Amino acid sequence: MANARKTVLKLLTKLDKNSSYSNILLDDALAKSDLSVQDKKFASALFYGVLERRITLDAVIKKYSDRPADRLNVEIRNLLRMGIYQLCFMDSVPDSASVNESVKLAKSNRNPAISGFVNGLLRSFIRDEKCLPNGKNKIENLSIQYSCPEWLVDKWLNEYGEDVTLSMLSTSIGQPPTTIRVNNTKCKCEELYNGLIASGIGCEVNHTTDNALNIFSSGAVEKLEQYKNGMFHVQDISSQLCCRVVDPIEGDTVLDICSAPGGKTFTLAEIMNNKGEVLAFDLHENRVRLIKKGAERLGLSIVSSEVNNGKVFNEKLPLADKVLCDVPCSGLGVIRRKPEIKYKNPEDFENLPEIQYNILSTSSKYVKTGGIIVYSTCSLSRAENDDVVNRFLQDNPDFEPVQLDEQIFGKDCDFKISITPDKFNSDGFFIAKMIRTR
After folding, report:
1. Which runs of E-coded beta strand occur in 211-319?
2. Element of type H or E holding 337
3. CA-CA distance, 318 to 254, in Å (whole number)?
4. Which of 189, 203, 378, 413 is catalytic?
5. What was the pLDDT predicted at 324?
6. Do residues 250 and 322 make contact, with C-beta atoms less than 8 angstroms apart?
7. Residue 123 pLDDT > 70, yes or no?
8. Which three-class secondary structure state does DSSP give residue 149?
9. Per-residue pLDDT for 1 more than 70?
């Protein structure tokens, strides 16, 4: 595992120095490496684990070092994080191996004293029975326990209350499920299920909605024959539910305003049995190509994709029966998949509600009288969700709320819902449904 640890150290250091998506960085590095399958699994677990638990790990460093983590050399900081993570969260790694391998990596540093520093800190932590530090107050304690920044803990407590926040925090860490959407235009759910099982892929039916499966131990999904043959695409259950709320039917004209990489576009076309018209848009040509490529693989001929700015009205677009407005957002609902999001400066998100409102307002102009618009984000933030929709309804009296399906979302839902990960073991998500009445 030595080379796996060295690979992880390089990737974590690179991520600290250059902002990048963790999944893209890791996938690219592993694809180019000569690591064994076992080492790749270990590297993935360690890389995502350290990234996910960074606040917790830094709290330990602060307790046992006279220098806080942010004042240490970036490589040494990540080396210590890796060692502490193995000690706390990787039961398969003996404490001795965690320390010894960390010290070996430290010896490659130009400063010879670093290996002794690393060795001393990790062994002190072990002598104290690997107890995590206590915070000064409830918010700091929760921050350390769940490795969530204090500003976000405080935000969620204020917006959702303590019970929901604790649920959101507990489901913000750990391995997220891999859920797929069966392409019903090519096969039945049972057929794909049986085919995956026969291929040695762990699989179970996800009963939250139709044509959904959870898969396990599949490795690189895109290498599966069933994937290559267009029998499914990967899509979290919350996104599948969003498409179900749109509820398109055969023959509809549907616009997906912010579509890339196209998962919801594909599901909408599949719900329509590939009959009608789905127009998918994105601001960037390279992302439009992703949509086109995905639609071709899935054999969805009713999908067409073009470059379009969602904030600017395009008079060339047709009026639609259904419009999906899945706007750019902070991504606070998907930090289990992309933990680097929670380490961003909250000021980075301040301008989002205005952008989201402008896209929603522009998108509403494409809706026919009697037509539906669905607003959605993968964020759990009242400012990006409820506040945007409430402002839109106040400014647009020709739109009214539409009650969501109680059988799916429960009796307490109305026309909008914040889906916390505990509800369906899904990504955090927000959905609101409205109809143009005149």
Report:
1. 212-216, 232-234, 253-256, 277-282, 303-307
2. none
3. 9
4. 378
5. 98
6. no
7. yes
8. coil
9. no
